[in-house]
Amino acid sequence: MEIYKGLEKILPKDIIYYNESMKKHTTMKVGGPAKCLVVPTNIEQIKSILKYSKDNDILTYVIGNGSNIIVDDSGIDGLVIKISNKFSDISVNGNFIKALAGASMPLVSQTAKNNCLSGFEFACGIPGTIGGGTKMNAGAYGSEMANIINKVTYLDDELNIKEIYNKDCDFSYRHSIFRDNKNFVILEVEFKLTEDKIENIENKMKEFREARINKQPLDYPNSGSIFKRPEGYFVGKLVQDAGLRGKTIGGAQVSTKHTGFIVNIGNATCSDIKNLIKFIQDTVYEKFSVKLETEVEFIGGNKK
């Protein structure tokens, strides 16, 4: 633990947390403690933390709201940098919106609407941050981040601040250059949107919100869609047709409302979720010869 205490020499103590339960920092509400979790408020702090972890060979994870990660039951034998609402400024300039990586996607969507800017409606209910959404090219209702991102500002491996434009981000389905380069840390994203009447934007957002409420299991902790969509298929239908609606292992259950989701119905563990995922994958492959790949990311496990 002494190695983490060294952070107190370069950071305010009130942004450092020791043996912090990761259940508090993920939407699935599972996972053991992180040895140290830091919630930075500016770029210099982020750079200082990353330099310290690099100099001291500390295993480090960067997360946002934890809406697409599941933490191991044993926790994280390392450092977690949580870039969220303490690093979340948003600004508007004409058709462009800039948002720091910790800004919530719904809040940026609302900001766009308030400024009569269209294109961000699809994200009004996605419970992630701009950084996380950009990294995984989050999408919904036929749109995705790649459609509206102009450029991304990030820290590279050497902690230099770089800018990269959309065409060089290697966006594809639930993928970007930032998933391949684990040491890149997104700082800010600039979006290019189009002008529209506020009522048109509001109507779209209302439609998407209602669809989400009606179709998704919002009453239980979850991590959104567990699997990537296989080409030519819908995950929910495959799982449903495999007879797995409501299948439960421990505290993890295939949602009875949307079979593309796994929900925590009460004190689920990471092991419960992993076992249920494998059961789904094996059953779907056995019945339909379709391989399901996970969209969520598993982190921790006390190893590099």
List keywords for this structure.
304 residues; alpha+beta; Uridine Diphospho-n-acetylenolpyruvylglucosamine Reductase, domain 2; Uridine Diphospho-n-acetylenolpyruvylglucosamine Reductase, domain 1; 3 domains; five-stranded antiparallel β-sheet
| Outline type | globular
Do you know the CATH architecture of the largest domain? Answer: 2-Layer Sandwich
Number of helical segments with 4 or more residues: 8
* Structural domain tally: 3
| CATH fold description of the largest domain | Uridine Diphospho-n-acetylenolpyruvylglucosamine Reductase, domain 3
Share of helix, binned:
25-40%
- Calculate Rg over CA atoms: 20 Å
Main β-sheet description: 5 strands, antiparallel
Beta-strand residue fraction: 25-35%
Order of helices and strands: HEEHEEEEEHEHEEEEHEEHEHEEEHE
Major sheet strand order? 6-7-13-11-12
Counted beta strands = 19
Please state the structural category: alpha+beta
CATH class of the largest domain: Alpha Beta
How far apart the termini lie comes to: 17 Å
Overall pLDDT metric: 96
Low-confidence stretches: none
